[in-house]
Design brief:
single chain; 459 residues; alpha/beta; eight-stranded parallel barrel; three-stranded mixed β-sheet; 16 helices; 39% helix; globular; binds 1-deoxynojirimycin
Amino acid sequence: MSLEFPKGFYWGTATAAYQVEGAWNEDGKGPSIWDTYAHTPGKIKNGDTGDVADDHYHRYKDDVALMKSIGANAYRFSIAWPRIFPQGTGTPNPKGLDFYDRLVDELAAADIAPFPTLYHWDLPQALQDKGGWQSRDTVKAFADYAGFMAEKLSDRVRHFFTINEFRSFVDMGHHGHEVAIAGGTMTISLAPGLKLAPREWNQVRLHAVLGHGMAVQAIRAKGKKGTKVGPAEVIECAVPMIETPEHIKAAETATRERNAPFLTVMLEGKYTDAYLKEAGADAPKFTADDLKIISSPMDFVGINVYRPMVYVVASDQAPGWREIPFASAHPKMSSSWHTLGPEAMYWAPKLVQSLWKAKEIFITENGCATSDVVADDGTVYDTDRVMFLRSYLTELQRAVADGVPVKGYFQWSTMDNLEWTQGFGNRYGLVYVDFKTQKRTPKLSAAWFREAAAHNAVV
Ligand code: NOJ
């Protein structure tokens, strides 16, 4: 039986500005919080930085040709806010805008649909200096920038993602986020590397979703009619350990609750009782109007899916589910947090549909880091990545076959790049990059991806 996807399915690959562009201080770009963080000794493994990264800023034409050659018909990239507004607000920088103009044109010429993300964590440092996401002024500045980009690009861009992984940049950047992994937990930090008290931290969470909502409204006001917009959130997907109705119900309830500060409030327009109760006096401050803005109707829900965040079973005790810890030998990919669990790729979109009746869903990221090496014959035999992609896409196809409205899939990442604080060591690409020479070599997984896209099916 062939595991096909619907006609018109988007087979994309994804990157983010800071991770690939380089040219950190060229053509009038202002510094971002990631420039500052990476230039602070000890923050990034081996002292790596995004100063040059993949040099995509200068090599984007070759990179678009590469995407074409691996069969992608969509590209998710992010726009570096400080290239457009070096100070975060004020006068736009024409050279920064020109880069994305040229990129979008190059994609159009290659028949690759552009899917820009407006915020993939590189806040202009000038705004951080004034309080960053702790300040409502940043929220407003983000919406202005989003509207500006929609005005400039929506003649050629049909889909915009507002913010990438709310949970990651808010929690890991403002508190240090603890994740469950095989055999225990680990804490991950990201720029700007703050350690806020719960009250302030919860307020940043609110500002992030408010920024999303205000951006949705700005894009509707300034973009061409028919422009579509939605978030790209790393969903906290609870996976039922056993697929029977009571455990599935438990997973659904747990997923709604675990996403309370982000997806749930964006899609329901209210915080769950449990979230507010648990936060108590530290709950964020908001008005009824804020909630309306936060839940501005969106056209699609974008979700990044890498792993089951937690396995659950039903329970007679409140809150109706029980977490099952990962076994210490549960298989993992190279990133230390990356527990393998292809079934998350079925349950994440499935639960987004059952909980929130999303009209359209995009898998905005999925992929894995492996320890790739170039073999003597010049090939990268990443059998582990092929196994990973095949198993996750088989589960995605199961969701689609069940009627879940998934419209596209973006593999993370087009090419190896700067994996934030892990530096260049964690290679996520379909294309291998030699960071000394910038030579690109498509891996075995790129050949797999090309066949899957060409057949519009798992191969
Ligand atoms: C999520 C982030 O959006 C992306 O920037 C990162 O590189 C991948 N996951 C892999 O960790």
